[in-house]
Amino acid sequence: MADLAQSHVSSGPGGEAHGETRRDFLVLTAAAVGAVGAAVTIWPFIDSLNPAKDTLALSTTEVDLSPVQVGQRLTVAWRGKPIFIDHRTPQEIKAAQEVDVSSLRDPQPDSARVKKTDWLVIVGVCTHLGCIPLGNKDGDPRGPYGGWFCPCHGSIYDTSGRIRQGPAPLNLVVPPYDFTSATAIKIG
Amino acid sequence: MTVPATTHRGPQSRILRWIDYRLPVVSFLEHELTGYPTPKNLSYWWNFGSLAGIILVIMIVSGIVLAMHYTPNADLAFDSVERIMRDVNYGWLIRYIHMNGASMFFLIVYIHLFRGLYYGSYKYPRELLWMLGVVILILMIATAFMGYVLPWGQMSYWAATVITNLFSAVPVVGQKIVSLLWGGFTVGNPTLNRFFSLHYLLPFIIVAVVGLHLIALHQHGSNNPLGIDHRGPQDTIPFHPYYTIKDLFGLSVFLLLFAFFVFYDPNAFVSADNYIPANPMVTPNHIVPEWYLLPYYAILRSITFDFLGIPSKLLGVIMSLGSLVLLFFVPWLDTSRVRSARFRPIYRLISWLLPLDVIALGYVGSQPPAGFVVTLGQIATFYYYFHFLVLMPLVGKLERPRPLPISIGEAVLGTGTAAERT
Amino acid sequence: MLKPFLAASALTAALALAVPALAQEEAPSPPHQAWSFEGIFGTYDLAAAQRGFQIYKEVCSNCHAVKHLYYRDTEDLGYTEDQIKAFAAQFKVTDGPNDEGQMFERPARPSDRFVAPFPNDQAARVANNGALPPDLSLIVKAREGGPDYVYGILTGFVNPPAGVKVPDGMYYNEYFPGHFIKMPPPLSDGQVTYTDGTKATVPQMAHDVVTFLSWAAEPNLDQRHQMGLKVFLFLIVAAGLFYAAKRKIWARVH
Q: DSSP characters for A124-184?
């Protein structure tokens, strides 16, 4: 819009400055109003790409834990992602609690990652580049710490889902969840 | 006091000059937009071209976003549209914009077309410009027809059935063409899927033809209400800022009308039957196309008799499509040497009969074909063809046009031959 | 100067009015009712919509589904999350298959759609003498006359005029096309006890349930009207500004 003002300054005789200032102000205001209008109009189109109401409504999953025996692991879906539920054995709990937290890449005590020590609930997505680690199915390799092993680039997690070796920077994420009863949880 | 017609100064900054030397976007825009000489006497009837371009962009943007949420499957389409209306953030807004935008698009284009007819914008040297416009109109009709099928309501399904069945009127291969279009024995899921694909494709073809339309326009520049050629810089002004600001003002007024429909009467143009999911076993009482297709529908139905061995059904199709094909020949049907109806006293009055006739046809198309409605449709169809094939050539030859002003510049200043407004 | 735009508006208005004016020659048009949501400042009367929801629950839902509504949508009407959860849990939804490969039933959740009274159209017909009670989620938009029509149907059950024989299994209705409807009169005075104490006459119940059904068909109306007002005011200001700028810029030429 700047060249608009210039092209008319050059062609008009003197004494037009006052009119031009008023015209410039008007034109600038109109341009600003137009720009605001355009921006406000774009927003609904962008927001329509955000999760819709029905997607958001499915943001919680309830899981019945009673069929899961000690030492068994269960995979459920939550918001389209796998959740690893581990009914930990006493040995696994002990191994998780006895680790020196300061030696961990992502320091977190086991107590900060569980609500009840015999149940571990973590998101089964490797924090490196998003593959699903092995270890939740019978016969899967679990890695040297008895936790999980990601086949894509070799990240190794312990019985608390913490990163011990390999390229992943962070521990496996603990999703928000609550015990709705002694044998059931609600995730999300 | 003259204003320079063009201001060629080239790109300002170094970055722009770097780009422009390799890809001349900046100088292109300056030449075709900023400095482009435009007759200084264009009226608001000339706003409708830019409006059409803007609404095309609105339709494409809203359509692309809708396509992110729509499912083109016969079992899921209706529900996916309801999901857009209820669950997708602002889905209702985008859907209503797209739905009412189609009606606005046709309204704008019909007015733009009528402007061309009235002011002789189709005459030498703009014949191809006009014909490209007719091509755009035909592509718009095809796009809109297919788009209306997508929600898979009762009217979607049955309008698709009726219109695709028209091709069975083609002798010998008619029924084969119809099954090819359908992809089956009736309108069904294969039809819906291909209509979705083509509905997505055609607007981009429209964009390409609009590009050609603009190139043709820029060859000789815009026509103007006086219909006389501009003779030099005293007759023209640069498009920017004069017509950019006028187009912006026109746009804001148009948006007011558009916003009224989107926000306060979004279903004004829609048949209530289209909120009933498609049912192949039940035909609605009155199958009615969208309003902008009513005149062609009326012509189709008004041919109730066989003629010269041609069955009435085929004749109806020919006459209906013919009403569009006829438009291609307008530059040669009109024999007048004078462009603008302002200086053509008889043609000026007659040209208003055409929109009246088209509105009458529209009314006929919206009503069940019984009683006086049929007769009215036949009269109106007859007049439509009479207007183009008889009146246009004859009036051009027989009428005495009023004397034309000497130039645009003088007419605007009032020193040339007196030229009244409108 | 602005003639073309007036012409455009007039043309649009004429066509918009002409197109839906398909003659209801099979039955008279129902009279117009006053609705809280009509006009450019219209909004849904939530108290009426809640009463209407009660009518739907207690009367209509025995035969009519509202498949486009989710239980969570009723939050718009003013219900709390707990109320919605409790309401939804009354209904059973088929889910599965579970890990044994079996389908199973569970109580409905707010994220589920309203459970339909019949599993499919054929079952609905069997239970209703061959008639299919239409889904009500969009009924107000799917009929010419909209809310006035639905109100007319609900209040239009009258004795047939002298000499008119009503076929077996049908009922005479003033506003239904052809006058013979398969639905028995669904509303009678005092049929429902409103939780807010309003007297449940047939016109009152019809008015309330049509308000509810209008909301069900067009839940975004309130937001649409509010946004429309802002857009209009903005555009009027913008048009004024652009016009003034246009006049200023064109002052050189005129």
A: -S-TTT----B-SSTT---TTTEEEE-TTT--EEETTS-EEESS--SPPPPPPEEEEETTE
Counting as low any pLDDT under 70, the low residues of chain A are 1-20, 22-23
**Cα dihedral value B83, B87, B93, B96, nearest 10:** 20
The three-class DSSP label of residue C145 is coil
Average pLDDT over residues B147-172: 94
**Which residue of chain C is at minimal alpha-carbon distance from B44?**
C1
DSSP for B390-406, written as a single string: IIHHHHHHH--PPPPPS
The DSSP letter of residue C114 is P
Q: How far is CA A168 from the centre of its chain?
A: 15
**What is the spatial distance between Cα C129 and Cα B106, in angstroms, rounded to a whole number?**
46
Rounded alpha-carbon distances, angstroms, from residue B154 to B79, B160, B283, B285, C116: 14, 10, 8, 11, 22
Residue positions counted in chain C: 254
Who among C234, C245, C251 is closest to A27 (CB)?
A: C245
CA B49 to chain centre: 10
Could you please report the per-residue DSSP string of B205-250? Answer: HHHHHHHHHHHHHHHH----TT-----STTTEEEHHHHHHHHHHHH
Beta bridge partners, A30, equal none
Whether A27 contacts chain B with CB within 8 A: yes
C241, A22: Cβ pair inside 8 Å? Answer: no
Identify the pLDDT of residue A23: 60
Helix (H) or strand (E) holding C95: strand C92-95
Using one digit for the tens of pLDDT, what is the confidence trace for B47-56? 999 999 999 9
Give catalytic status of residue B247 as yes or no: yes
Residues A53-87 pLDDT 10s? 998 888 888 888 998 999 999 999 898 899 999 99
Q: What are phi and psi of C33, to 5 degrees?
A: -105, 160
Q: How many CA atoms lie within 13 A of B217 on its CB side?
A: 23
The tens digit of pLDDT for each residue in B207-258 reads: 999 999 999 999 999 999 999 998 888 899 999 999 999 999 999 999 999 9
Q: Which of B108, B383, B365 is nearest to C18 (CA)?
A: B365
Distance CA C163, CA A186 (A): 66
Which residues, other chains included, contact A116 with Cβ-Cβ below 8 Å and sequence gap of 6+? A179
CA distance A105 to A103: 7
CB nearest to C238's CB, from A12, A34, A58: A34
φ/ψ of residue A127, rounded to 5: -80, 0
- Using left for φ > 0, alpha for ψ between -120 and 50, and beta otherwise, residue C64 falls in beta
B-contacting residues in C 229-248 (Cβ below 8 Å): 231-232, 235-236, 238-239, 242-243, 245-246
DSSP C113: B
Kind and range of the H or E element at C163?
Answer: none
Q: Which two tokens stand for residue C101?
A: 């490969």
Fill in the DSSP letter of residue B307.
Answer: B
With beta carbons less than 8 A apart as the criterion, state whether B163 and B141 touch: no
Higher pLDDT residue, A64 or B391?
Answer: B391
Distance from C-alpha of B85 to C-alpha of C108, rounded to nearest angstrom: 23
Phi, psi of C153 (to 5 degrees): -60, -45
Cis peptide before C97 (omega within 30 of 0): yes
Q: Is the dihedral of CA A109, A113, A116, A118 positive or negative?
A: negative
Q: Whose structure tokens read 């003659």?
A: C23
- Would you state the pLDDT for residue A11? 42
Q: Has the ipTM of the complex gone over 0.85?
A: yes
Chain A CB contacts of B86 below 8 Å: 53
- Please name which of B296, B320, B304 lies closest in space to residue B370, comparing C-alpha atoms: B304
Give the largest CA-CA distance in chain A: 94
